[in-house]
Amino acid sequence: MGPTGVGKSTFINKFCGENVVAVSDLMESCTQQIAFTTRTLADDHPLWPGHRLVLVDTPGFDDTYLPDHEILRRISVWLARVYDNDTMITGLVYLHNITQKRMLGSTRTNYEMFQKLCGANAMSRVVMATTHWDMVQSSADSQRAGEVREDELKNFWAEILSHGAQIMRVQAPEQDTHNIVESILENHAKQVVTKIQQELVDMGLSIPETEAGQHLRYTLQEYLDLHKKLRPDGDPEIREKEEQLKKLNVDNSFFSRVKDLFRLKKGGKNLQVYPTKSSHN
After folding, report:
1. Which of 199, 244, 253, 205 is nearest to 224 (CA)?
2. Which position has the higher pLDDT, 126 or 142?
3. What whole-number distance in Å separates Cα of residue 113 and Cα of residue 96?
């Protein structure tokens, strides 16, 4: 996971040693759907010989074409469906571009949404990986600048790191992607359930009710409160944010389109999950 253009698809391709997911070098985002590829670990793998490994690529919350509420829906639905199908997540990799000189609003939103989706219990299964080190290694000065940014990121990521997340670099992509995945596989037995999975499947909440949904609503409202006074009436970006906020506040089809996918398995019976409050209807 991570912002658009940070190298999520490239990470998977480098790990696999071939282009299995699309990559774009343009300013526009490339991954809009949840994409995954499956690999079988080698028969001589020291921990999990012959086991299946599934690598999942997700769109960022600053996608070129899709609004943030739709990104939230797609990621949430995928996570809930695999959990409801008794498939557990072994680990999560969050990527950040080390060349970024300051924390942009979209970058902050991506990270904060990632926190809300994961929850504290899953943070010990997270690797915070910095990418694009090749762009800061051309000289000793630029290398030092990257290291300074890495130290700043440690402060910005203090909460998630305090819950056991690791911080690693993608400097030599072919090797480092394997190192990151192997660091996760070493603790394979510590599979966890993310916060959004618990909220949607175990608690039966709607997506707007989840912590991630509430945070996105707050972020959109904060943006509107700040920019409405500065931008002319009819500004297309303002209208887009207002429409997203409407989806979270009013349009319950945001959840009803997916609620039939989730079932709880209790006492040997499959129970349908519906919104827990009558105001959702």
Report:
1. 244
2. 126
3. 14
The proportion of the chain whose per-residue pLDDT surpasses 90, expressed as a percent, equals 39
Work out the pLDDT band at 152, boundaries 50, 70, 90: very high
**Amino acid, single-letter form, for residue 281:** N
What backbone phi and psi angles, to 5 degrees, belong to 240? Answer: -65, -45
Most confidently modeled range among 58-67, 151-160, 259-268 = 151-160
Contact criterion met (CB below 8 Å) for 129 and 180: yes
Q: Which two tokens stand for residue 127?
A: 């690797």
Radius of gyration of the chain (CA): 20
Residue-level pLDDT at 161: 96
For β-strands 52-57 and 92-97, DSSP reports them as unpaired
At 144 the pLDDT is 86
First to last CA, the chain: 32
Instruction: Give pLDDT tens digits for 251-273.
Output: 455 454 455 555 444 333 343 33
> CA 29, CA 181: separation in Å to the nearest integer?
24
**Has this prediction a pTM greater than 0.90?**
no
Please choose, from the candidates 161, 152, 159, the residue with its C-alpha nearest in 3D space to the C-alpha of residue 126. 161
